[in-house]
Amino acid sequence: MALADDLRAAVRDHLADRPGASWQECARELGLAGLMVPERYGGAGCGPLEMAAVAEELGRVLSPHPFLQSAVMAVAALRECEAGDELAALAEGGTSATVVLPGDGDLRLDGDLLTGEVPYALAGDLVLAYVDGLLVTAEPAERETYVTMDESRPLRRLRFERTPARRLGGGSWARVRDLGITALAAEQAGGAARCLEMAVEHAGRRHQFGRPIGSFQAIKHKLADVLLLVESARSAALGAAADVGEVSAAIAGSYCTEAYLTAAGENIQVHGGIGITWEHPAHRYFKRATSDAQLFGPPQAHRARLGVHVFGD
């Protein structure tokens, strides 16, 4: 965990000093783009624990960087295929990638031609898609960027019309999905922790009836409940990173999603009137928590997958 802790501190300091740093700058100065790329392809060769530490810090500041889809999911997919050229390109940080999982869209592969549409995909320069058990890459005929509630996580519609596709190989798309859920859970834990910090800071500053509102029992109980959620969410996220698999990812995906939604909502409640204004950042965390809750399916979907392992078919 020493390396993960060092990474966490380095990323937090860098984001505090340079909040507007581009993805290319983060790739060059921190090596985030190539964090999980094998060393032989120019990356750092780190694992899920280090990935979770970085994701947690990015979640704290609502980073718009494509770490989740590019540095985690795309790298995992390309590693399965030993796609060295693509991995080296991602490690440099000059390009990003996104992954289309089975079920994310209606895609058909006719020979080496890809046709179909992906209604919602995370933004990325290189598009990787699982079709008929294969990982392929193709340049969409059309990319439409949505105007979304959560502007910090761009979504696009991708359309392919008999587009030439290059086959990269097979591999386990389920592991790519579970790594994505694990990274998202760490982001959610980081965002929830920041919501709690903001609420505690406000409860100590805001006075009512001559006392800080944090001294009132109702606020104390509210903050204590959120603290329990935040610590449990972090444990679930780290547990999933320590043992990436469908069960641990489903647990983290379910718990961290609901913990973040609750923490973001309670942060607004503690702030009162100022918490619902456009100028205060509380609404941005609530929007991110809400959009995250749909990214890999809602908590109920994670629990349904977990239920198969617990109760059987």
UniProtKB/TrEMBL annotation:
Location of the Acyl-CoA dehydrogenase/oxidase C-terminal domain: 183-306
Hydrolase among keywords: no
GO molecular function terms listed in the Swiss-Prot or TrEMBL record: oxidoreductase activity
Entry-linked Pfam families: Acyl-CoA_dh_1, Acyl-CoA_dh_N
E.C. number(s) listed in UniProt: 1.-.-.-
Cofactor(s), by name: FAD
Any coiled-coil regions, as ranges: none
Key words, A-Z: FAD, Flavoprotein, Oxidoreductase
Acyl-CoA dehydrogenase/oxidase N-terminal domain: residues covered: 18-72
Organism superkingdom: Bacteria
Keyword Flavoprotein: yes
Family: Belongs to the acyl-CoA dehydrogenase family.
Protein known as: Acyl-CoA dehydrogenase family protein
Source organism of this protein record: Nonomuraea salmonea
